[in-house]
Amino acid sequence: MVICMTRVLISGASIAGPALAFWLRRSGWDPVVVERAPELRTGGQNIDIRGAAREVIRRMGLDAAVAAATTGEEGTEFVGRHGQVVASFPAGTTDSGGVTGEREILRGDLSRTIVDETLAGDRPVEYRYGDRVVGLTERDEQVLVRFEHGPDETFDLVVAADGIGSSTRDLVFGDEVRIRSLDLQVTYGTIPRDDSDKPLWRWYNAPGGRSITLRPDPHGTTRATLTRLTDAGTRAGVQDRSSEALLARLRADFGDAGWETERVLRGFEQADDLYSESVGQVFAPIWARGRVALLGDAAWCAAPVSGMGTSLSLVGAYVLAGELVRHDDHGAAFAAYERVMRPYVDQAQKLPPGTPRLANPRTRVGIAAFQTGLRVAAALPSWVGEKVFAPPAEAIDLPRYATAS
């Protein structure tokens, strides 16, 4: 039986929000997506789609479009200070395996692919950019939503899918949600492609818990990251966009790191998509209250180091939409959504021992030990390496909903 309510406000237009809108529209519902950014954010770094999320993409009918938009990354290469290869791993050949997944795509390209699909046809999803939710009040079996710029409006349900620092979530859950810091700062940016670049994810470790990576993209540029361990207790979820202060801090932290670092720092000075975040995980005791539900990183951020963020968002959107359409009561639908997703999320949030410190050693001795382990792993048969580096992306019995028929 289909719920009588059909009008749903979704806060956040990255991956989880548009994916939920896709499934709800397919079932005849009327989703509206509000996004704080002034337009669709098409920037972002490499993400991978693994395990059950690959099946969700197939059920959306988007596998061919996603395959056509992949980055072309052929594997992962760990390098030393002078660029010498320490260990190399080919891209995965299954739905889940490999350091580099079989479906590597830029965050912005995946978002655009899904959004474009929701805008096609005679019932396009409505997107409202440059606004956000600042108040929620339940009354008369609806939610009165107060927007920062637009007029107040009522919806049958509200879904917060606006990331680890979700302001929509905070309106309902406040400080009940715990954000655990991983004491890791990552800065992302796009730099010009160089003749030395390869179709590989190249990873370099420098003393002090620092790493520098370069990855290919399909747009003629290179995606770079500067990562460093921070002091214990660093507040997770803090984000910083391009600024003179950020650039000065990066040069102070990485100026002596070696390898391609100077090139990255110069490129970041010109980058228009520079973005820095304190990495963390989100732990919410429940994912719904009343007529408001949480989805994606707002509900369960597993952190980029889990390799599961995008996969969880895609699967979560599919399950939430499926349960909403399946049940005749939103409370029962939300409970079923959590019952299906919670074990999958719990697995994803259980990071391998030593993460992220193991991959970001502070000392030269630690780096040498890490590289020795990589050489051993690279010498194993490729299928062993695929399993070793595979996150728990298939650890769910994916339901078949009417929305996917």
Could you describe the 3D structure shown?
The chain is an alpha/beta fold and 405 residues long. The protein has helices spanning 16-26, 52-60, 63-68, 107-119, 167-173, 244-254, 261-270, 297-300, 309-326, 330-349, 364-379, 382-388; strands at 7-11, 30-35, 46-48, 75-79, 85-90, 104-106, 126-129, 133-139, 142-147, 153-155, 157-160, 178-192, 201-206, 210-216, 221-229, 239-241, 275-283, 288-289, 292-294. An eight-stranded mixed sheet has the order 5-4-13-14-15-12-17-16, with helices on both faces. Strands 7-2-1-11-19-18 form a six-stranded mixed sheet, sandwiched between helices. The protein has a domain at 7-72 and 106-178 and 281-352 and 399-404: FAD/NAD(P)-binding domain (3-Layer(bba) Sandwich), CATH 3.50.50.60. The relative contact order is 0.18. The model has no long low-confidence stretch (mean pLDDT 91). A hairpin with a 4-residue loop joins strand 14 and strand 15 (221-229). The chain has twelve helices and 19 strands. Helices cover 33% and strands 26% of the residues.
